[in-house]
Design brief:
Length: about 110
């Protein structure tokens, strides 16, 4: 998984629109990741928005990123949350080339 030339040995790749949920059981405090459109997409193709929800409340939003955007560091407080939901939208313009990477994701937990 590579975003603007930076290789992430671990991560989660999804195609917009998509979401993944993790049960945290109230034991984690922070979620971080480097997010962006995968380098397999050429040029400015693809446009996505990354969102992080803790128990249904949005706690982080990347804004629109394209294939030519630099990776964005996303950090969200999830203290006390039972469910973490990672969402990728198509930024409102369809799903063509929307190959979204959550690079090097990390949860800080007790």
């Amino acid at each position: 998984m590579t975003i603007q030339g930076v290789v992430h040995s671990k991560g989660l790749g999804v195609h917009a629109a998509g979401s993944v949920e993790y049960y945290l059981g109230g034991k984690c405090s922070t979620f971080t990741a480097s997010v962006g459109v995968d380098d397999e997409v050429a040029g400015a193709d693809g446009s996505v928005v990354f969102q992080v929800f803790a128990d249904g409340t949005k706690v982080a939003d990347s804004g629109t990123l394209t294939g030519s955007s630099a990776a964005k560091s996303l950090s969200a407080g999830v203290s006390g949350a039972d469910v973490l939901r990672l969402v990728v939208t198509d930024a409102g313009d369809g799903i063509d080339y929307d190959h979204a990477d959550w690079g090097s994701p990390r949860l800080t937990c007790a």
